[in-house]
Design brief:
alpha/beta, about 350 residues, nine-stranded mixed sheet, 14 strands, globular
């Protein structure tokens, strides 16, 4: 890819690209594989049969997924101008990768996958129960083989130079802290913005050293109430969400140019934002229960909506409003999917 092709890129995402295999299943399936409603876990040996079981026994949807890719696709949809976004992650040399790349490219994303010859493309079992809640079981496969050296190749390097906003999920902590630190240093040195997501409680509980290594680079940290609670417990900050947000915002930063902003979503409850040390609550417009189809991708969509307006230079209230709007659209559909036309005003 020539550098000129990246010239319009504003937002770059980096995460684990996974093909979502999504199905509505009875609660017994969750129990069988030892996951709870709302869980997001990495697949172990005991989970491996779930992928074939979904395909064989249930009606499945295949969607270009992975949390970061979801967010970038939503941001691209809301920006409605090709190549405003780009995405890095590792995939296999197979049909699943081709399917994901075609879908994301169709959406206008500048896809910069690293191709791994000896691993299949990662997949994520999305178990949706009758109440619309989802549980995720991710088999990273090729995604786990991402190398920081990919960022030095021509396409990714051009994208990194052009972009001003970077978004990396916490899930990537299990893959390449080196790559996160490279992007983090680039943001500090060039006065750009690095956004990250807590992503899942297990990352806070078991990958604390990796998280501590990259938090100093983070300008905006996203998370939900469950992840915030895990952070509060781990750090001894208690269970009050605004207090946790303030403490997380106050952790040391590599760049002294701006305070860290922390944004905690709480489902249908108001979103908590700590910016410049001040906590503000942003209400969520209620949605009738019968309109809820699937919560998979709600948090990812929130981030995508938020970043789309941040890229336009909008204020915090507008960015949060766009996040709420995007999440509202996604939860009324199956998987992290959206209408062809974005009518957000």
């Amino acid at each position: 890819m020539a550098a000129s092709d990246a010239s319009g890129c504003t937002i770059v995402g980096m995460c684990n690209p996974l093909l979502d295999i999504s199905a509505v299943v009875p609660a017994e399936v969750l129990a069988k594989y030892g996951v709870k409603s709302g869980d997001a876990v990495l697949a172990e040996e005991k989970h491996m049969p779930v992928y074939s079981e979904l395909v064989e026994k249930y009606k499945v949807d295949y969607i270009a997924g992975g949390a970061g890719q979801n967010s970038i696709r939503v941001a691209q949809w809301m920006l409605n101008k090709p190549n405003m976004t780009a995405y890095f992650g590792a995939v296999g040399a197979d049909a699943y990768a081709a399917q994901m790349k075609a879908q994301a490219s169709r959406d206008g994303v500048n896809v910069q996958y690293m191709e791994v010859a000896d691993q299949p493309t990662g997949t994520c079992a999305v178990l949706v129960t009758a109440d619309g809640e989802r549980s995720l079981i991710a088999n990273l496969a090729a995604a786990n083989s991402f190398k920081a050296s990919h960022l030095e190749t021509a396409g990714p390097k051009a994208v990194i130079d052009a972009a001003s906003i970077f978004y990396i999920t916490g899930f990537f902590l299990t893959v390449s802290v080196d790559a996160i630190e490279i992007v983090g240093r680039h943001c500090v040195e060039n006065k750009k913005t690095l956004c990250m997501n807590l992503s899942a409680p297990f990352l806070i509980q078991f990958f604390g050293d990796q998280m501590n290594a990259v938090i100093p680079y983070v300008d905006i940290m996203f998370g939900n109430e469950t992840e915030a609670a895990a952070m509060g417990e781990k750090m001894g900050w208690g269970s009050d969400i605004p207090t946790i947000a303030k403490n997380l915002a106050a952790l040391p930063k590599a760049s002294g140019l701006k305070c860290r902003t922390v944004i905690i979503t709480q489902g249908s409850t108001a979103t908590c934002v700590c910016a410049e040390g001040v906590v503000t609550s942003y209400p969520v417009e209620p949605l009738a229960k019968e309109a809820l189809v699937d919560t998979n991708g709600a948090g990812d969509a929130f981030v995508g909506g938020f970043l789309s307006q941040m890229a336009k230079g909008e204020d915090m209230a507008k960015c949060v409003d766009a996040g709420h709007w995007a999440a509202r659209v996604i939860i009324q559909r199956s998987g992290c999917s959206y209408p062809e036309v974005c009518d957000y005003k």
